[in-house]
Every structure is written in structure tokens, then in C-alpha cells.
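Fold it.
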Amino acid sequence: MPSCDAIVIGGGVNGLACAARLAGKGRRVMVLESKALAGGGSGTVNFAPGYHAPALAHTTQGLDARMMAGMDLARHGLAFHPPLSSTALSADGDHLMVLGGMSTGPDAAAFAALHHKLSDFARVLAPFRTLSPPRLTAKGNDWGKLARHAIGIRALGRADFREFLRMILINVHDVVQDELTDARLQGLIAFDTTLGSWLGPRSPNSLILYLNRLAMGADSLLPRGGMGALAAAMAFAAVAAGVDLRTNARVARVLVDGDRAVGVVLDSGEELRAGLVISAINPRLTFQKLVGPRHLDAGFFTRTSHIRSRGAAAKLTLALTGAPDFRGADLKSRLVIAPSSEAVELAFNPGKYGEVPLAPVMEIILPSAHETGMAPDGHHILSAIVQYAPHTAKAGTDAARAEMLENSLAQLETHAPGLRELIAHAELLMPQDIEARFGMVGGNWHHGELAVEQMLFNRPLREAAQYATPLPGLWLAGAGSHPGGGINGAAGWNAAERILAEVR
């Protein structure tokens, strides 16, 4: 007999969101998390004695509003610092700051107008994030639901509607070149657009990723207590809703009986049965490792290996014995080294050929500048997302890691002279390290590249785009499904809504 109604594989943000939603509707749900603590990439690690650093992600762009309210995360201790301003660092100290639609510098008015226009476009796209992707079949399709939300796009007005259609398929480099003159601002927008992707600013269709970012929220948010506080609040909320959360429980395979998923087998050999199995981990890993070819159509199984999942972001963490000086920049800001859109493109080019960029671009957060307890008194934690790391390094991962670290530290030293002398401990995770540590295939933070051809009803594949999979009883609820990655929870919540509507 099933021990519960549903087993959720993976206790990250999406897994916890899905489980809490189902449990809140009376379903008996068990979450299986392979690590000692839930949270996935949103947790905190003891980086060095006395230093507590973000495990991977160091901010959120904004949590799904349905999840925030439905899990009552504020009651479980989740609170945020004020939205972070973004500082486009300049090596000569002539920095530029952005918060919402406001910026300093000569392009302040032009940026405000561009931000307003793009935010309007993002606003009409935002409802699609809360939907299951439509079925594009002659029978049982969801065209009506899609059409209702498309009305919001058509309501833009004729001129804006035409501009919207033009811009969703354009690259961000052309947009910032056309609309802005300040290289610092162009670089910041180009970097924000391509962050975590396998795209450069000149890549076709890249602007849609900036609209997706704006749909989640214009500014980055840092939880009080660090990202680990977010993970803890979500775990507490899930348990309070009735979820049975088991940690240190790694799933070895999905248990299939009579062509239906009926449970899982753990590494320990323990079998757990349930009416549904919901995978909130990487879809390629789910189908290829946990299910295997025996239980899937041969064509579908082959296509799962074609889900593109190239990671280009490296994670740099530094334990510092003092406060770095980025030539007077506010250490509570989100600091970005991306001098121009061309600089971002130049950083992307070597990675395409398995090489390390000489001048990587990066996003920097100092969580210890916001509150005490993350580092010894007077010391700091620096967390940076560095691009672009080669997905397949010509020189080998170890050599590329060493070169990437050196080039990243050189960039930091240029913008914060004397920083090297403050380093007590350093770690750089290449995409291969991220895959090994967090189960993100290819080291891709979104569990599958965010690109036009891998979004909406093509995410992760057409046959599994509505969260149900070709294997009855098996569902998807992770970032590899619509609407994609980021510390957000929308995919998990969407999956739960679909399950509640279709499985009685």
C-alpha cells in the first residue's frame, strides 16, 4: 500500500513549494532531500571557520506571490532587506547606480523611459509564469486559457503591440545601443540579461530573458539572515502544512510497476510507495538516471538527452579579513563588473570554444555588509557569480578553474585595490563542480537553458511541458519546467496546481 499520496524528489525551493501546496489541500506528501538540509542552491554553508556563505544563489529576484502567501513565509520568519541597488563598477571609481527604473549618469531619462517600456511588456508576460503551458494539440488543448492572457498583450495598443512583437525577438545589445549612450549602463543591462544563460548580448532573442527578469522583479532581494533563512522558512512552512520532510535521503531510482510510477528506491535500498512521484530535480537526470530507457518510449528517451543544459556561470566565494574598497562603492549594493555590452560579449566568446575569458564579468554581493554573524567581526564574505566559464574546457577542468580564479581575482583587484591581501580563503566552483555538488546537469542554474526554443510549451520537452510526463504517475515540478529557473518557486507551485486539478 502507498505510504503517502505523493513523494517529491528534491527539497529545493520548487520541491518545497509543490509539497506545501499539495499538503495544504489535504494530500499526504513526503519530500526526499539528498542533503542534510533542505533548500538546494538557496542554502548557506560553513565556508570556513566563522564564515557563513551562500551555498550557490546569493539573492532572489522575487518569490512567487502565490507561494509567499500560501506558505505564509513571513510567519515562518522570512523577511527581506530593502531591494538592492545595482552599482555598475568603474575601474576609475566613476560608478553608476540603478534602483528600479532610476539611474545616475547622463542616461537617467533615457533609461527611465526604456525601463518603463520594458516593464510594461514584462507586466503583460508575468501572468504566463503562473500558468501551466498550453497543450498545442487539436484535442484537449488549452488555447482558450492562452487566449485570455493574450488579451493583456493585445491591450497594449497598436503601436506598443508592434513594438512588443519586434522586441521579444531582438538581442539586448542592439536595444541598449539604440536606446542608451552610457557604456556602464549598457554593460549592466547586458549582464543582467545574460546572467546564468548560455547567451551573449548579441545572441538572437536574448532580450526576452531581460523581460523574464523584469517579470519576476526589477531588483535583487537579500533575505535577512542570508539565503539559508529562506530555505529554513520554506522548510518550516512545509512541515507546518503537514509535509513529511526527510533529509539525507537520496533517491536511486523511480519504482515502476505495470508501466506506472509507484514510488522510489533510496540509495539505502529502502522502498517508498506513493500514488504519485513528483521530481523537483533536473529533468534530464530524472528521465535518464532515475527512470531509465526501459520505461520510456525510445524516441522520447533520446530527446531527453537533447535538452540543452550548458552552464556558463562560475561561483566565487571569498573569506576576507577586512572590508574591500571598490573605490568608494556602497558595499550594501549589488556590485557588477561589466564595463560595456561589448565587454560582456567578449567574455562570452572564449567560453564558446572551451577557453577562459581574460576579463570575466561578474555580480558581487557582500552579505556580511548587511548584518553581523556571517563572518568574524570586521571580516566579510564576498560572493560572486562570474561569467563566462567554459562548459567543456580545452585545458581540462582543473587548469580552467585555476585560470578562471586568477582572472577573476585580477578583475576584482583592478576594481578594489588591495583585495588580494584580504583573502583568507577562496573557492571557485566551475559548472562541472556545480553539477557534482547540486545535481544541476551541465552546471546550468536553470536545470535547462532558458532560451526561446526551451521555454513555455517546449520546456523541458513538448511531451512533458504540462508537468505530467509520458510515464503515468510521474510528474515534474522543478526549474527545468515552465517558467524556468531562479529562486522563485513558480514551477513547483504550478505543478501542484496542475496535479490538484487533474488527480483526484
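Residues 397-415 form the longest helix (19 residues).
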